[in-house]
Amino acid sequence: MQGPERFLTDLGVTLPCAVDPSKQAVFDTAHRVLVNHEAYFVSSGEALLTFVAEPYKFSGKVTDPVSLVRFQPNDLSPRRSHGGRLFFFETNQTAAAFDGNLEMYGIPRPMMKEKT
Hints:
Blueprint: H1 5-10, E1 32-35, E2 38-41, H2 45-53, E3 62-63, E4 69-71, E5 79-82, E6 85-88, H3 92-100, H4 102-105, E7 113-114
């Protein structure tokens, strides 16, 4: 699967850096962080290191890949790495379900639900 960099560039899209919104994000794989099924772009190597150290501070809401509920992760949220991306989970139960079926939950699915 191809990343969004080429399409964003072709469309002339600009985005602020996920870490430092006063700077413009760079659209290439070296400046991209994948969290759950979302891509975040940063402006520099330093910003990338900052994002990776505490991604929950910069990601905003993400979708639990098992329950499909959108939630704000924090430093206590269960997390896993799979296929070159970081996944946060709403609960330990959804993290365990993910562990039991990586092929099913490691790819994006429709029907995300907002947590109420």
